[in-house]
Write a structure and sequence with these properties.
Elements: H1 2-8, E1 15-18, H2 22-25, H3 27-35, E2 39-42, H4 52-65, H5 74-90, H6 102-109
Parallel strand pairs: 1-2
Length: about 110
Amino acid sequence: MVMAYNLRQPPKGLVFHSDRGSQHTSKPYSKLLVNYGIRASMGNIGACWDNAVVERFFGSLKHDWIHKVHQPTREHMTKDVCAYIKYYNFDRFHSSNNDLSPIQYENLTN
């Protein structure tokens, strides 16, 4: 979260949505969000639709990439997942964004 915050430098009022994993509900993490001026938002227990956007991303990652490319080592997979995230955000067209990549869409709306 710190790296993403520093890289993107979002405006005040950012909402961070997560599941209810122990790392996201811990006191140190909650304090970190407060210190950065970020509001926490968590999905309900057992309600997968609360995280539909990220679930869609992971579905695409698995279907479009991971299951189609041989992953001989953990290091290879780590690099491959990073490459997919870059592709997904910069190059992959999204019909919900008028066939723009997320970065193109964000640049148009800011």
